[in-house]
């Protein structure tokens, strides 16, 4: 089965992960800019990071026949530094022109501070002005419900096209409000801290699937790129067809990401006898 | 060995995850009942899980033997 990893932090992972993903059917990964585990002090560090994910990382993925795309943003944790955020935002349009850059992300909220909210608004505004897709991170654990509500309030006060906005890391307590507002919703499957493969399949069975995306967890912390495949196995084990799986794990990412013409992987149909 | 605070801090998130899995499993069962319009012919496994949670919810376990109590409890279910 062909699989797309819509949210994958490749710079934190090994070549062996690429190799195993390729063996399991992954054809493309999308790498949003994220927090490195420490707060970067210089805008130039972001610029080098954006160059890494837009220029170098596609070559590493290509060694294994995997397409690599990226997103650029100042993540919510570092958005607390206003001066740094402003300087990076000024240089982001250059990277939005890169042939594998799909949009602005991951922006969003962490603790929902005034500076984070201001940064989220600036990122969304930049994206809309440049007709870009937006990937929005929602907070972890106990901050999630409040942070997601705040994201939706911020977006409601702006002129945005919900078709182009993906709100990520939804769980049972937040998915309804995100879908009801017309946005795409992403589930991120972690071994401990976010949604699990089985709970993701529960959600897939309960909600309309047309705007749902499923991501593995793949970063420098406790995470596992193969939680995505775990959820596919769980989905199939419950009796859903291969085509239904393809719709979720391959075609939905194609439909959302394909709004950017740089994304040229098309939805596929499986012919079963 | 871990002190009391370290014990909670070390294992809280994993225990939270495991409880969420139990909650989701029970929700999954209820959704299946809604879809099929009838309960399982034999609900003893569900009842057993609910009873296990009652045991866990008791405030005092002076012998710190919750796991042993649950194993004895689950042994009654075939």
Structural descriptors:
heterodimer; A: 273 residues; alpha/beta; TIM Barrel; eight-stranded parallel beta sheet; 9 helices; 8 strands; B: 78 residues; mainly alpha; 3 helices; flat
What does this structure look like?
The complex is a heterodimer of chains A (273) and B (78). With 273 residues, chain A is an alpha/beta fold. Chain A has a single domain (3-257), classed as Metal-dependent hydrolases (TIM Barrel), CATH 3.20.20. Helices cover 42% and strands 15% of the residues of chain A. Chain A is built from nine helices and eight strands. In chain A, strands 1-2-3-4-5-6-7-8 form an eight-stranded parallel beta sheet. Chain B has 78 residues and is mainly α. Chains A and B meet through helix 7 of A and helix 1 of B.
Task: Give the topology, please.
The complex is a heterodimer of chains A (273) and B (78).
Chain A: E1 3-5, H1 15-23, E2 26-31, H2 43-62, E3 67-72, H3 82-96, E4 101-108, H4 114-129, E5 133-137, H5 144-156, E6 165-167, H6 175-180, E7 184-188, H7 197-206, E8 212-215, H8 227-237, H9 242-257
Parallel strand pairs in A: 1-2, 2-3, 3-4, 4-5, 5-6, 6-7, 7-8
Helix pairs in contact in A: 2-3, 3-4, 4-5, 7-8
Chain B: H1 4-36, H2 44-57, H3 66-74
Helix pairs in contact in B: 2-3
């Amino acid at each position: 089965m062909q699989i797309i990893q819509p949210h994958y932090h490749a710079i934190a992972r090994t070549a062996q992960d690429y190799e195993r993903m390729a063996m399991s059917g992954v054809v493309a990964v999308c790498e949003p800019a994220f927090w490195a585990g420490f707060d970067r002090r210089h805008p130039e560090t972001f610029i080098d990071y954006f160059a890494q994910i837009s220029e170098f990382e596609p070559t590493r993925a290509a060694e294994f026949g995997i397409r690599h795309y990226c997103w650029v943003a100042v993540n919510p944790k570092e958005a607390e530094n206003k001066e740094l955020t402003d300087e990076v935002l000024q240089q982001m349009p250059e990277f939005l022109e890169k042939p594998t850059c799909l949009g602005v992300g991951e922006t969003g909220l962490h603790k929902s501070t005034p500076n984070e909210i201001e940064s989220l608004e600036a990122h969304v505004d930049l994206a809309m002005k440049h007709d870009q897709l937006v990937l929005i991170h929602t907070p972890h654990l106990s901050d999630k419900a409040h942070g997601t509500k705040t994201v939706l309030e911020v977006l409601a006060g702006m002129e945005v096209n919900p078709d182009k906005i993906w709100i990520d890391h939804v769980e049972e307590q937040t998915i309804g409000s995100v879908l009801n507002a017309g946005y795409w919703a992403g589930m991120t499957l972690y071994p401990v801290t976010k949604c699990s493969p089985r709970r993701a399949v529960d959600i897939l069975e309960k909600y309309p699937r047309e705007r749902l995306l499923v991501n593995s967890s793949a970063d420098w912390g406790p995470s596992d790129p193969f939680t995505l495949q775990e959820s596919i196995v769980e989905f199939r084990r419950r009796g859903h067809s291969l085509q239904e799986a393809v719709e979720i794990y391959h075609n939905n990412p194609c439909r959302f990401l394909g709004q950017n013409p740089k994304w040229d992987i098309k939805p596929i149909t499986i012919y079963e006898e | 060995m871990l002190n009391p605070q370290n014990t909670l801090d070390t294992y809280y998130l994993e225990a939270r995850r495991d409880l969420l899995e139990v909650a989701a499993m029970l929700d999954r069962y209820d959704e299946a009942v809604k879809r099929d319009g009838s309960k399982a012919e034999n609900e003893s496994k569900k009842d057993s899980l609910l009873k296990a949670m009652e045991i866990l919810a008791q405030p005092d376990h002076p012998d710190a033997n919750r796991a042993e109590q649950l194993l004895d409890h689950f042994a009654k279910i075939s």
